[in-house]
Amino acid sequence: MTSFLPCFNYHHQQSSSPKELPYDLDYQRLNEVVNTISTALSDPKLRTTNNRAVQAKVWSNPLVASYMTDLRHAEELIRSEIMVKLSALIHSFHQHCIDTTLARANITKDERGRLQSQSKDLDVLCLDAKERLYLILKEYHWIKDFFRLYPMHFFENSFTFINNIPQKKLDDIKVKVVGLGVGGSLAVSGLKKRGISHVVGYDKRQRCGERSVTSRYQNASWRAYDIASGLLDSEAYDELVAYQQKINVLNDDGISERVLTSDRVQIILGSAIDSALASAERYGADLRFGSELDSFYNSSSSSNSTPEEKEQEKVDIVALFTGAHTSEIFEGLKDQMKIHQWPDLSSSCKMWLQIKPSEKRHAYTARDVEVGAENWHFAIESARKTIIDVKRIRDSLMTQYKLAKKRASISVDDDGQNVSVVEKEYTYKLEKIDALILEIETAQNKDKEARFDYIFANAPDNEHNRSKIDAAKNDGNVVIEGNYQVDIKIASRSAISAQETKKLCDQFSSNLVVMGGDACVPPNPMAAYGATLACEFAEMLVQLAVAHGHLNTIEKELVNADGADDSWGSQVKELKALFTKYYDTRGRAENYFQW
To answer: d(Cα 329, Cα 290) in Å, to the nearest integer?
Structure first.
């Protein structure tokens, strides 16, 4: 009798690829992009437009857009290769567990359908392994594409086998997250939400107060709430999306307005981080604030531990969400990340925050901009009730004050006058913020709906924009200001494995070191994408950890089982390497988009 089951030679099936794929960023090609954009921005007409118009013009340029296309193509080729190998393993496991699969779906009566991987029967172990591979596909949101591209597996979905997969433990993976800002705080929450047992978060700053991880007062226009919904608990998510951005559009009559809802929300970074950390804590995360570098890193990579103890101390993944200077913090990391930079294109920017009692009675949000290459500013306004956001500014002022006083005290030319000037300046600022806190608290005691306007602005540092700050100061509403540098640089690599660089991974006592967010490409106020990029990497880390966790369990439970196929071990290892490569390849595309 002729079999109608198609025969697939999985082990020889490979994705076709172009001769040269951008698995590393090409400096020469990036330089062409830089020169192209520089030429475009020299057009006087373009220089008078707003940042969205500039972005539209830039991305319409074939040279700029084609590189993004190539990066996405490389990402898709890795994804395709992963799905080919997943299909092969699922098919191989399925041959051993058809009966238990049918029992799991309640199609046949078989006690084995209710057994978990504690059973050493090969068919039950294969069922557990197959289910774990499907859970990986679901975590990456690839399940629909998988069934469409590999229809031989679709019958399992037709009787809702996928929906009946029980929750699986993820005890065979250890993850450390260093840096608990926007990306890191979301990551630790998401990792614990997925049930990963061994997750530790580190930050050199404290949880709250002066110089803390939650004292950041900067505002952000953010659209990663779909990602956040998968990484946070419902309480934290509701806090993050409370200030949906609105746009007021003037009607044709020139008088009346209509309000449109934007695809972005407004977040205060410190508040968002606080919400994400609270979510992680509710999930039981081990968060270690005030951590020194040697808590997770040893530059010599040597210790008194025996090789066996070193192996036990090792974790599977260390994730660095440690900001724009990450590549300079750790010895040898800059070379491994392959940082490309253009020092002559660095620019100075100003930021300032105004707070005043609000006349508004609802969660109002708005943006205010001035356009033009030199004259632009980008301000985000919201009417809030959360007094903690104002107290957070006081923490930032105290940090600024202590740093300014320290610098003044070590000045060579100082005869005590510099310290006196600092004392006078910050005494005024602190008295002002204390009076504002008291005013808002008094108003809210009388009226629970009393709000304050929180107006945060960015702009290039020049005479025109400094005059805006001076005008705001004259109004008496500026409570804090600061300076920052926008550097043009980008990392070609965001994942480094022990197979590639054993010394660096040994310094972190890890098999794999990954980077995310500002560590790979510094934020750019014109792009308004920095917080969103950090969230993208947080989700990517959670996906990678879930994939490695399930594959580690499959390798541990199944590869050495009686009757197991000799090729399963090598196939699992290949998949782990491919998921790491996918993180790196997708990261390259996301970084280029922000850059």
So the answer is: 17
> Is it the case that residue 416 has pLDDT exceeding 70?
no
Query: What is the pairing mode between strands 317-320 and 512-515?
Result: parallel
Distance CA 560, CA 555 (A): 8
CB within 8 Å of 9: residues ≥ 6 apart: none
**Cβ-contact 546, 135 below 8 angstroms:** yes
CA–CA gap between residue 259 and residue 250 (Å, rounded): 9
Long-range contacts of 428-433 (CB under 8 A, 24+ apart): 429/397, 429/401, 429/479, 429/480, 430/394, 430/397, 430/398, 430/401, 432/479, 433/390, 433/393, 433/394, 433/397, 433/479
CA distance 304 to 318: 22
Residue 308 pLDDT grade (very low, low, confident, very high; cuts 50, 70, 90): low
Half-sphere exposure of 140 toward its Cβ, with a 13 Å CA cutoff? 25
Distance of CA 583 to CAs 79, 267, 551, Å? Answer: 10, 27, 16
The tokens for 58 are: 């830039």
pLDDT of residue 255: 78
Q: What is the pTM of this model?
A: 0.88
CA dihedral 233, 234, 235, 237 (to 10 degrees): 90
DSSP-assigned beta bridge partners for residue 350: 459, 483
